[in-house]
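Sorry to interrupt, but I need a hand with the structure work. Go ahead and set the record down below:
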Amino acid sequence: MSKLITFSQLEVNIKISMGIVLFFVAVVLFIPLTVINFFCVLYKYRIKWSTINGFFHETAIDIDRFGNRNFRTLLNMTLQSNGYQFGNINETISSALGKNKRDNTLTKVGLLLCYILDSIDENHCIKSISE
């Protein structure tokens, strides 16, 4: 016996499928559009190569904030224990790490990540705290 699908169920299935499709399109387009945008910014504003670091720094912060929000479940499960929660879109992962380091609530994985970041930029996690 075949089961009938109502219009409402079909509409939900299409919306779910479209979300998945749009997600993969966004992921695939992100890198090439970033590269193209970089060269467009260079061309339009005649930015000197010595000032390009700011472009990459701002983009890195935006990606970091996105990661803090979108990967909050993973970050909260693996990097902190009963401490400050990851997930604020206005905060970087480093800031949340710094707050957990300050509060002594990092897991071993969180401590390792702070160690790596602090090796690249001295006292990075604590310096990154935004209140």
